[in-house]
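Hi C.,

You asked whether I'd gotten around to modeling the 94-residue construct. I have! Everything is below, sequence then structure, no commentary in between.
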Amino acid sequence: MSLLSTSDIQAALRALDGWSEHNNAIHKTIKFDSYMDGINFVNQLAEAAETHNHHPDLMVGWCRVDVTFTSHDQGGVTNQCISMAKAVESILNI
């Protein structure tokens, strides 16, 4: 899978609420009503990541989860990163 250009990343992110690009990765901070809501989200995302074999970097805080996708193998953002960002949005909209 090849790296996306900055313009391709920005175009894809315009359709994804709250996502940004920085340091060769895409990122979103998601706020939850409770700590356990965030943990439940992380568990659902972990299942999706395993299915797609593309895993995020996660930081779990109080009622907040930071999600970052990059291709460590490729050194930047790929279509697979964008697909996983879309998977995050799908999980959030369930």
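If it helps when you're writing up: The longest strand covers residues 25-31.

Thanks,
B.
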